[in-house]
Task: structure prediction
Amino acid sequence: MTSAAEPTEPLQIAFSPCPNDTFVFDAWAHGRVPGAPALDVTFADIDITNGMAERGELDVLKVSYAVLPYVLDAYALLPCGGALGRGCGPLVLTRGPGT
Result:
């Protein structure tokens, strides 16, 4: 992993090519977040990224909630980008009809 100082090389990141993940990382991956470090993106299935995180292979990884407790000693959870759904995809919530 890189230090807190400004990296001179792009950060190594891996996430799945599923629509949820590509949406979450789109602006950062395409240089549209002012001041954010550049990224070198690898697309991989979530099982692969989980294993990469367990081995500490890259700077930033999208992992499943199930592996999170096992990698928090080496990685910090970013306060954004979660998707939790029933079956597949994120849940869309409303307070109710007419609200």
